[in-house]
Design brief:
928 residues, alpha/beta, Rossmann fold, Arc Repressor Mutant, subunit A, 6 domains, 7-stranded parallel sheet, 6-stranded parallel sheet, 38 helices, 46% helix
Length: 928
């Protein structure tokens, strides 16, 4: 038996936790006891953490290594906190000390860790950077014998993983022969991941995939009469109301539910809609933008069963202990199998319990995509990890770190250490020397007698330990409703901040009214003129394989239309409900009147000045093809060709179908990369990434803002430098897929991918032009709907009512609750002023005036405003209150608006909107 290999002391502790070894424990304990490096893959809840720690504790007890000998690295500070609670039990039983060291660790705790070193430290990749250069910490790190890397999949496909790979090589300069154990519940291409972590060192890959009961279904709730009533109340579509009702019912019928969304905004909006729908539903939200204290409180409340549900993003998809979860709901498609498996694994977080999950899908592409991801999840068909290489900004940071650890370290020595790490195997000495010259030019290092960091280099190192960009964001505020509709990145705003500019935020077109500090005031715009530029944030890209299967499923349904058993056939192949199957069939029925785009075809459709190219090639391939075709056509026609892509189509503005087809005839697949390399530096995408990378390089301060800086001038200054090289490198690796695009291009030229054409816009084509992302926020709005929402906002606005006649009446009221003919309840006078609810001094000013007391200059100014407001209400009654409730509308503007002859209320509201728009535009020019 596996546990018999352990010492008696460890066996006694193990017996209190495990009656028998789990699958990962059986497979991993023996090789770890032998000192082997391993990558262990096992589902959540199978005891894999203890599977690697138990044999390490056994070896530690035998060797009694000096502190600190065990290093445990996790991707999240919250995971560190959770892990500490679990390991403290083992430390008590086996008599070793353990501590957490990360960004939130206090100075007092850090001092104690140095004076009384711990046997085990739990940390993050970023904190390891600080530890490696600490004069008192480095001697402790020289005692490291075991390194555990948890949730390795969260690291290897980002620059955090590259940073960790180099940090491990730097650690080997202190303690050469430590053992590495990496853990993950979900890994695509385990061989590549292992090579990334272990480099050329011997290792074993252990897959302990235990059979676990999984109950997974994709559902599409159809709206009933109650949903239609709720839709009107919440200003959402009735299909969205049906999903909200389903969520409410599911949460109530389970003990503890985790509901995952793909964005923070979706979590916030879903929560607010659910609170309106059911005030009694006990739930909360959890995402990375919330403070640590708020997140911890939510986790504890859920664990103590005071909450029935948490609505979360990826912040809770890792192994944080939040108690027993018996249902995971994914709102809309999870977009990627690996991500979804991690989320799904939170349900039934134990090998003996059932993992239960439901994807509540939207219509259109979402329902097909959800079905495919659910099938692939059950079959464990995970995406291969996209492992970055040659990250030059990370390299710059690590060079500084090495120079801090070893003053005037020689370039050849640094080059040798760096190229041991897998991401830098192809780094040439020539380019390495170019890097050093560039770092010297931006005043980070000297290279006279070796590599020595400058004072600026020291500041840069500690300010840039995180590879996650510090992006300033602007809230986008709909001036009609005064509500936040999304957020934009600072570099996007720097390019598109002019009043009148149009763009897409969260799937909806908006026009800029004004930019103020951290807010962008916008108004809804109609038509398709806002299709580009668009900002959809950092959504997870839908893989090529998923999009291809969506195309295949479309064809399968199209070929089976008319068969009575089609619903059952779909349900037999995919874990979908009857409603979901019907939804897919209904869409293909409507599409079949046109051409059904599938996995082996490209279908072109015309709609006015727009051309839709249907292509089931995934997010990255379609983005690559869109930029390539657009760049060539822009050069040929001497104008900018705007495009927008999603996983299933590319949309071109003012381009003929024959012009697009000609690109496939005239150019070769190998032209794609050089054309993109030449054209990308002029794009918004390049500018956005360039600024992030310049900050990570130390060329620009991390807290720099760009309202008054020319981004184009900065880019031109560094045009032939590692900054430009790394920007292109990052875009090619993260946002594009050139190799797969070349493959598609070849197939088109060979006729293996058929090109079809339609002169009309089909239902699937229409989806691409509808900006369908955030349907839980608001449906597409005609002018009447905008005015309806605006009126609702005005009526819910609060005003302070003050009697100017007696000065004894002072009350704050919502406009809707104000009487048609406002009167003072004290003296029955109609001389009532309506002012801001925050003008608490209004009553005192009126009373001072009535008593004949002197008023200062500011009070006289306020009194004049109060009296003019009362004049408006005595003439126009409640209508005067409504107009004064408008943002920035004072008595003078109110008088001007109400003096006009409005035939309808809508005409009045239009005039008020115009006045608000003018106020927002001109506000920043007013003197304080």
């Amino acid at each position: 038996m596996t546990f018999n290999l352990l010492s008696e002391q460890v066996q006694k502790a193990v017996a209190q936790r495990f009656a028998a070894p789990t699958a990962p424990q059986k497979l991993s304990i023996p090789p770890i006891l032998k000192g082997k490096n391993i990558l262990l893959m096992s589902p959540t809840g199978t005891g894999k953490t203890e599977a690697v720690l138990i044999p390490i504790f056994h070896r530690w007890l035998l060797e009694k290594a000096k502190p600190t000998s065990i290093l445990y690295i996790t991707p999240l500070k919250s995971l560190n906190r959770d892990l500490l609670g679990r390991i403290l039990w083992w430390s008590k039983e086996l008599d070793f000390s353990v501590a957490v060291r990360h960004g939130d660790t206090t100075q007092r705790e850090r001092k104690l860790q140095l004076e009384f070193p711990n046997d085990m430290i739990i940390t993050t990749p970023e904190q390891l950077q600080a530890m490696l250069v600490g004069a008192r910490m480095r001697p402790l790190l020289s005692n490291i014998k075991y390194v555990v890397i948890d949730e390795v999949h969260e690291l290897v496909d980002s620059k955090r993983g590259v940073q960790l790979a180099l940090a491990l090589e730097r650690l080997r300069e202190l303690s050469e022969n430590f053992q590495i154990v990496a853990l993950s519940a979900t890994v695509g291409a385990p061989g590549e991941v292992a090579k990334f972590i272990f480099a050329e060192r011997p290792h074993e890959i252990i897959s302990a995939v235990a059979d676990k009961s999984v109950d997974l279904k994709v559902d599409y709730p159809f709206p009933n009469d109650d949903d239609k009533i709720a839709a009107e109340k919440l200003f959402i579509g009735d299909t969205v109301a049906a999903r909200l009702r389903a969520i409410n019912d599911l949460i109530k019928s389970h003990n503890a539910t985790l509901l995952f969304t793909n964005t923070r905004e979706a979590s916030e909006i879903l929560s607010s809609r659910l609170r309106i729908l059911d005030k009694e539903l006990k739930h909360d939200i959890h995402h990375s933008s919330l403070s640590k204290d708020v997140r911890i409180k939510t986790e504890q409340e859920f664990k103590n069963q005071n909450l029935k549900a948490i609505i979360a993003t990826s912040s809770l998809q890792l192994g944080i202990d939040i108690g027993a979860v018996d249902l995971v709901i994914q709102y809309m498609s999870p977009r990627e199998v690996t991500q979804f498996l991690q989320r799904l694994g939170r349900s039934g977080h134990n090998i003996s319990k059932i993992t239960k999950g439901i994807i509540l899908a939207g219509d259109g592409d979402d329902i097909f995509e959800s079905a495919v991801i659910a099938r692939k999840s059950l079959a464990k068909e995970m995406e291969n990890s996209k492992i970055p290489s040659m990250s030059l900004d990370v390299l710059s940071h690590q060079i500084i770190g090495l120079s801090m650890s070893n003053y005037q370290i020689q370039p050849n020595e640094v080059f040798k250490i760096v190229t041991r790490a897998t991401p830098y195997k192809t780094l040439t000495k020539e380019y390495f020397d170019k890097m050093l010259k560039f770092m010297e030019s931006i005043h980070l290092i000297w290279t006279d007698k070796g590599i020595a960091r400058k004072r600026r280099g020291l500041e840069y190192y500690f300010n840039s330990m995180s590879t996650i960009p510090d992006n300033r964001t602007f809230r986008v505020v709909d001036m009609t409703t005064n509500s936040v509709v999304g957020s934009l990145d600072e570099t996007f705003i720097a390019e598109h901040n002019q009043a009148g500019s149009s763009f897409i935020v969260k799937g909806r077109p908006w026009r800029v009214v004004s930019v103020e500090k951290d807010k962008v005031y916008v108004e809804a715009t109609s038509g398709l003129e806002s299709a580009v530029p668009a900002w959809e944030g950092e959504l997870i890209p839908v893989p090529y394989e998923v999009s291809q299967e969506v195309g295949k499923l479309r064809k399968e349904i199209a070929d089976g239309l008319g068969n009575n058993d089609l619903i059952e056939k779909i349900k037999g192949e995919y874990p979908v409900s009857t409603g979901a199957a019907k939804c897919m069939i209904d869409l293909i029925k409507r599409q079949s009147k046109f051409i059904v785009p599938d996995n082996n075809s490209m279908v072109f459709e015309n709609y006015g000045e727009y051309t839709v190219m249907h292509a089931c090639f995934g997010s990255l391939v379609n983005e690559t093809l869109a930029r390539f075709i657009s760049a060539l056509l822009s050069a040929e026609q001497g104008r900018i060709i705007a495009t927008k892509s999603d996983p299933y189509r590319i949309i071109f503005n003012s381009v003929k179908i024959d012009d697009i087809k000609s690109i496939f005839k005239k150019y070769k697949p190998e032209d794609i990369e050089p054309v993109l390399s030449a054209s990308l530096p002029n794009s918004s995408l390049f500018k956005h990434r360039f600024i992030q990378i310049a900050k990570r390089f130390g060329a620009i301060r991390r807290d720099a803002t760009f309202e008054n800086v020319s981004i184009d001038r900065i880019i031109k200054t560094y045009s032939d430098s590692p900054l430009t090289d790394e920007t292109l490198n990052e875009i090619f690796q993260q946002k594009l897929d050139v190799r797969k695009a070349e493959e598609i291009f070849k197939k088109v030229k060979k006729g293996e991918i058929e090109i079809k054409q339609s002169e009309k816009l089909s239902p699937l084509g229409e989806l691409g032009l509808k900006y369908e992302l955030h349907d839980i926020a608001k449906p597409d709005r005609p002018e009447s709907e905008i005015l309806k929402l605006y009126k609702q906002r005005l009526l819910s606005t609060k005003l302070r009512l003050v009697c100017v006649n007696c000065g004894k009446y002072d009350m704050v009221s919502a406009v809707d609750d104000i009487a048609k003919e406002p009167r003072c309840p004290k003296c029955t006078s109609k001389l009532i002023a309506a002012v801001s609810p925050y003008m608490t001094e209004a009553k005192n000013i009126v009373q001072k005036r009535l008593k004949g007391k002197d008023l200062n200059k500011e009070e006289m100014k306020r009194l004049e405003q109060i009296k003019r407001s009362a004049d408006m209400i005595i003439v126009y009654a409640k209508k005067g209150c409504i107009v004064l409730a408008g943002r920035g509308i004072g008595p003078q503007t109110c008088s001007r608006i109400l003096a006009r002859m409005h035939r309808t209320d809508d005409e009045l509201y239009k005039d008020m909107l115009d006045a608000e728009r003018a106020f927002i535009k001109n506000k920043r020019y007013w003197s304080n």
